[in-house]
Design brief:
homodimer; six-stranded parallel beta sheet; four-stranded parallel beta sheet
Chain lengths: 284, 284
């Protein structure tokens, strides 16, 4: 049992929210897994919808945008930052870790680790945006843990607009997925990492193309598990110190443009409660 | 014949470049038509690739971005500004005209006028981005000239990513176009305005879906004709004062992100010479 004053201090420290940012709405799949796994944690989500997407922009620009969005969230005294965007994780995670004195969790390492744990034939496929693929971040993350795993990569630029249009289970989605995945299908992989936060919504279509023998890794779930493990190891968990009867915390949403569009399209990504976003500016 | 000093002054004034901006690379279709029609005019093109696309962003954000890009071009002493982006024309043309003391030409009015001149049945379709369609700018522009024309609008959010992926003439493009245009096809229109600078690259596919009886209006060409007419009416034409033997002027390109990607993807839009873009910042 902790002495009362220290207990109070820890309570206060751990009541602080988790900050989550993404270029737009895709990161809501990560938020969804976090709120499901850690329902008592306070969360603040920022979607940089004025500059979305990050996937086709340069390392320099994505890093600058990521620092600006992180700086905004830091004003809310967050205890942990989740970079819920693959492109930002690929390009800016190092810069953010260097800059911030709270834990920073990206979406790439968790997905890479889960892929390594899942593959039996040691052949892993990764799909994502142009930027994420070009960065080689998944390749590096997988090779760093297990250099014997062979990695195959494919960018799928049309997947994000397809998801945002709501075309996740129709013939256009299937045809597009077929075109992008035809090469990967021939590589004998048994694991495919969905290396973009939009892609979990295309899971059924991607599974149809890849077949049952290929396991799909949802990096949103892998990231939520990583957040839980970091909170535990740094003694920052909120629920450890609370009665379990409390109602789940509601996320707070911020966007840099078009709150209405965020609410409308966001529903497809986050179905754990209403999405009412506040419009803010993050530009330095 | 003008007196020598006035002639010199006009020469100097008219030697100034035409400034053209777009959210990214789509406006290159407008630049292409301008350089073809007015080969002796100096041109400066700015693609705001750090914040592309504008099509799914709000009026306020698009107006702010448009003013920042226009302000950048003004530093080059341009004699006329072309807003080569439908969304920016829809949202920001009024604000730009108010702010600038040079002629400002958008892409919507020229396309609307050409559509009215082309329709025999007085039923016109317009396709474009979410933002352009939602703004109602084409509807207003057509109705202002001829209120008896019936206007049908359809946003086609996947067309831009399809074009940027180079999928302009394949089965995925045809399937997508079929889905978007099925309603318009039933409306008995005889003219369809391609209300987005990317769409001319999908002309063949769109024509296949709409059939021969529907004339497609390329607003890039309409805009170039409008630029010519404005230059003539304001005595700002360069070639009027020059020997016709001069070689065509080369456009100068600026982008706010990823010059390499601009060069690579831009080739599909602009084939009048090499594209070497300089990286600049336009944020206020």
């Amino acid at each position: 049992m902790l002495p009362p004053l220290l207990r109070l201090k820890l309570d206060f420290m751990n009541d602080r929210p988790i900050g989550i940012f993404d270029s737009g709405i895709g990161g809501l799949t990560v938020l969804r897994e976090i709120t499901r796994l850690l329902p008592r944690e306070e969360t603040i989500y920022l979607g940089d919808t004025a500059r979305v997407p990050y996937g086709n922009k340069s390392r320099e620009t994505v890093t600058r945008y990521s620092i600006e969005t992180a700086d905004f969230l830091l004003k809310y005294d967050i205890k942990l930052l989740v970079v819920a965007c693959n492109t930002a994780s690929a390009y800016a995670l190092g810069a953010l870790k260097e800059r911030l004195d709270i834990p920073v969790v990206g979406v790439i390492e968790p997905g890479a680790k889960m892929a390594i744990a899942s593959t039996r034939v040691k052949r892993v496929g990764v799909i994502g945006t142009e930027g994420t693929m070009k960065s080689g971040a998944y390749f590096d993350a997988i090779k760093a843990v297990d250099p014997t795993v062979v990695v195959f990569m494919q960018s799928c630029p049309l997947f994000v607009p397809l998801v945002e249009e709501g075309w996740t289970d129709n013939d256009a989605a299937l045809l597009t997925a077929g075109k992008y995945l035809v090469k990967l299908k021939g590589e004998g992989i048994d694991v495919l990492v969905l290396g973009c936060t939009h892609y979990p919504l295309l899971k059924r279509t991607i599974a149809k193309v890849m077949g049952e023998e290929v396991r799909l890794i949802d990096s949103a779930l892998a990231t939520a598990l990583e957040v839980e493990s970091v909170l535990k190891s740094t003694n920052l968990m909120r629920e450890e110190l609370r009665e379990k009867t409390e109602t789940p915390a509601r996320p707070r949403f911020f966007v840099t443009d078009s709150p209405e569009r965020f609410t409308r399209v966001g529903k497809k990504f986050f179905n754990e409660g209403p999405i009412q976003a506040e419009l803010v500016s993050v530009e330095a």
